Amino acid sequence: MIYRIEVMPAPGLPDRRGAALLKDIADLNLSGVNSARVVEVYWLKGNIDRAAAETIAREALTDPVTETFRIDEPGEKTTAGRAVLVAHNPGVTDPVEETILKAAADLGIALEAARTGRLYLLGGSFSRPTLDLVTNRLLLNPIVQHAVNEQSVIFGENPAYHFQLRQIDLPDGDAALCDVGKLFCLSPDEVRAAAEYYAKAGRKPTDVELETLAQSWSEHCVHKTFKARYDFDGQVIDNLLKTTIARATNQLDKDWCLSVFVDNSGVIDFDGENAVCFKVETHNHPSAVEPYGGAATGLGGVIRDVLGTGLAARPIFNTDVFCFGEPDMADEELPPGTLHPRRVFKGVRSGVADYGNRMGIPTVNGAVLFDNRYTGNPLVFCGTAGIMPAWAARPGRQSPGDLIVLMGGRTGRDGIHGVTFSSEELSDKSNEQSFSSVQIGNPIVEKRMTEAILKARDERLFTRITDVGGGGLSSAVGEMGESTGAKVYLDRVPLKYSGLSYAEIWISESQERMVLAVPPQNFDRLLEICRGEGVEATAIGEFTSDKKLKLYYDENLVCDLDMEFLHGGRPQLELRASYKAAAFPEPTFPCPARLDDDLLRLLSRWNTCAKEWVIRQYDHEVQGGSVLKPLVGHNSDGPGDAAVIRPVLDSGRGVIVACGINPAYSEIDTYRMAASAIDEAVRNTVAAGGSLGRLALLDNFCWGSVKDEQSLGALVRAAQACADLSLAYGTPFISGKDSLNNQFRVGDRVVSIPHTLLVSAIGIMPDAERAVTMDFKGEGNLIYLVGETKAELGGSAYYAAHGFIGNSAPAVAPAPAKASYQRLSAATARGLARACHDLSEGGLGVALAEMAFAGGLGARINLSRVPQPGDIIRDDYLLFSESNSRLLVEVAPADRADFELIMESSAFGLIGEVTSSPRLKVQGLNGSLVIDQPLTELKNAWQRPLKW
Amino acid sequence: MVTEVRVMVLRAPGTNCDRELAHAFEIAGGKPRITHMNELIGGSQTLSDYHILGLPGGFSYGDDLGAGKVQANEMRLRLFEQLAAFIDRGGLIIGICNGFQVLIKTGILPGPARQELPHVTLTNNDSGRFECRWVKLSSTPGNRCVWTEGIEQLEAPVAHGEGKLVAAPSTLCRLRAVFYYADNNWRPTAEYPANPNGSVGNIAALTDDTGRVFALMPHPERFVRASQHPGWTRRNIEEPGAGLRIFQNGVDAARRS
User: Fold this and answer.
1) Complex ipTM more than 0.90, yes or no
2) A339 touches A704 (CB < 8 A)
3) B215: helix, strand or coil
4) What is the average pLDDT across A778-786?
5) Residues 730..789 of A with a Cβ closer than 8 Å to B: which?
6) A772-948 belongs to which CATH class?
7) Residue A251 labelled as part of a binding site
8) Chain B residues with CB inside 8 Å of A626's CB?
9) Domain A2-147 belongs in CATH node 3.30.1280.10
């Protein structure tokens, strides 16, 4: 029997989901819809009677105080409206199903299956096209959902799978061979290498062998562009990664770096007993087509990276950085085949929040940036840090005979070909093509798995662990088995539903799975732990000593590859790269007499404005280690520079985390863009009381096309900047990731994202309670500006507001910057900084305003005291230049001498003081006021845009 | 006089504030053990070995069918007698956030515990959003809750999407409120965001007739150290964090019993 149960708000009680939907409809500027109600729908399948279905409905599905239900009566139609019933597509995981079955079992009722849906009842008088627009824009995403009609099958039958070995012909002719390669996403060089290998072996490849090569050799898995051999305007660079970023880390050779570039995340020492690891990942293409699911699984994936580092770490915080199109983009401007930036933003935010909150990991740091070139190809960076005992910090090593154990969620068709999808450009057809490449996450499965793994780690039951991410088992087992060899019985992999071929099982990217190497004598105990936590674990094979990858399905050998060829047989990519300096028109407008309006406008820019709407919807306090929160100040609404947490609750030691990202400079020069991003991440750390002492960096490159020489030249320059700054600051990169070909094709027009580098910084603070917040603290305190202001407004927010880009992107002078950071850290360690804030987008003006309204105190500033080389004669340049390495510091008058003595050899200026009068007053070079604004105006301008 | 106060911190799949709750009990002088629902249902752990039951925050079973609902049903249907006996013989219970939702949906609060569907619930915030922010709490005079003895005012963070207390008017008048959401002058308020969810009667915490069962939406276990307070860089916040007093009260009361 199948029962359909509808649960809705009790009569007289508000329908909040309906009200929210009505607001979203209004945002679309659609008229005619005047009421909206939302009803939860459950389908229950099982050999049960109506009374049993009613019991489940009443006791498990309905809140007796606020909700009411009905069974099997058709959805109520509003008089002049329409009803839309949305359900998951067949084959898409319904994460609630398992919970319903469990809740029914608690009631003593056995169900076979359950599905969920949502019924939308729209009232009013509107046309069919309006309904379609609402349905497609707000109610469903065809990637994972559909509108139910008479023909829909809720409990579809999955076909059985009948084994048949597929062998692939590799034709003799080069063109035909390359065509076969293309089918498997192998480049011409790669498929030629494969053909040579199979010619030598005297046999044809199987489909799963070519899939394995394609996954293992994909950009996502091996970063072949970064490891390529470059001809950079005549200069040969053999392996870009090795000669830049990795070289710097090797040269710095810090003893507190415990594991760099070799594991799923980078690991540094925390306190001798514990180590901390950190990884940031991107999940751009899935988020473009299914923002909620794409972002949620992005975070789920990076959490598993941390679980799969060393011998497993416990997650301690998350970070998130998003780049979207502008939320107020006109519908007419929206490229066909793309989702509106507002919808992408809302979906991504809730995907990350739902996953992170449910995992119980605080989201403590991040950024949101907007540029319409991100519309078709948004960027979603998710980071996770973890902590582990020092003995578990380094990658494990399995022995031949250790079992290959697959733990966590079951395997389905979700996410097949995700890595090849993520490595290609998006187009207006992506929505249709990517049907199977979007995964659906279930954080509670991951939470259970986390608990089981940490328990098993503490009992030292496994010798190695890794996550199942891009490329599925193919990458996870393929990489683990490199040193020994591995054989896997694919028919033993637990499936969500029948019908998967052996190749699909092997490359599926279903979420919430980990692979462990378990000595056979420990397996029973591992199973016991898993049972206690409600987690599935299955031995699917074992590690061998023959250095071969052998896959079986029902005793049929379907793959027999040499590990040496799999990991060493990929031909190195050869690329040409070139660099040409930018030449944009320089601005010609005169300096305005008053700068109030410019400041207000800068505070209201999407990039600068308050992100409280996002931040508050994350739990940033869970785990109880919060020291510096993302929002600070007298009303807890100012923009903190970095977050500090204490991951060990009975220790005063802290972890500090910050980020830097400046895609606006990349059009001018990616070297300066990358240097600025590093400087910003470091400077944010220093502002919050951290130091260069034990500070590590992560890089995340999101590039446009890497098919033309200019883009590759831009990539080379950015990588060189990373190496140079890393060496200069003594801050090693410990992990990184790249996502290339971030562009969107509509017909013959291609929109590339601005080349974007996210730099994340993680540091250790011996005493977390030395942290500093950015809000002004006391009337009469002195305001210092540390660092020189130069006429560097190329790519600045101020130029952009006046319609220019310019060419003078901010540079970094690392030697003086490093010295002033070290001095400032010494000052904060002695408690001399009452507040400190970094200057970034919008320069001095924006930073001052933020410190003032966050502290609820005014300031009086004199621009003639701003340290500068002496050539700036414009007030607007002094106020809005984005020169790097500058910070504002609030110092109590009593500490003046001490502070000035410490900072003596650095460029700094006493530019004003904190006032009790709640106004920001800035005196220009000629002595007259250029800004005189009440804090309420400044704060309103800053808060208004994203007060959703 | 009990010398060792044993605390069971009970977690279900999706519970995620168990470690910091155990930590709070530990520094309050108790002896916490984090216990999985499966251990309690399977019988390898029993409540009769403990003095205090702590129900931490999180998303038990993903809150898939409503916050705390599935764990509440599991406890109501499988552990009811054990729970009722625990309360009868003087056991103490604290539920925080998801733990509050569980206690409400089992009917243990407002109590007395009966094995029927409750008339009080915690539902979606008026804002329609999950939100994390610090709130001020004022205690209700003469509430006789052993957990909050001597606490008139408290600050603590909330982090929830379903914290709005709703009750039928007939039930509302017999609820034993312990804390109200308060404004900057510590007066009860219905104003958002000081009242973060629109709770009826501005109620943030409840106790039962015994005064030994206590639950609240805010997280006092996240304020056991001064530097957890959002204002610690602006003014002097006393050590330890004021939230610790609740756990000390609980441990002291268990010790006296």
Assistant:
1) yes
2) no
3) strand
4) 98
5) 768-769, 771-773, 775, 777
6) alpha beta
7) no
8) 222, 228
9) yes
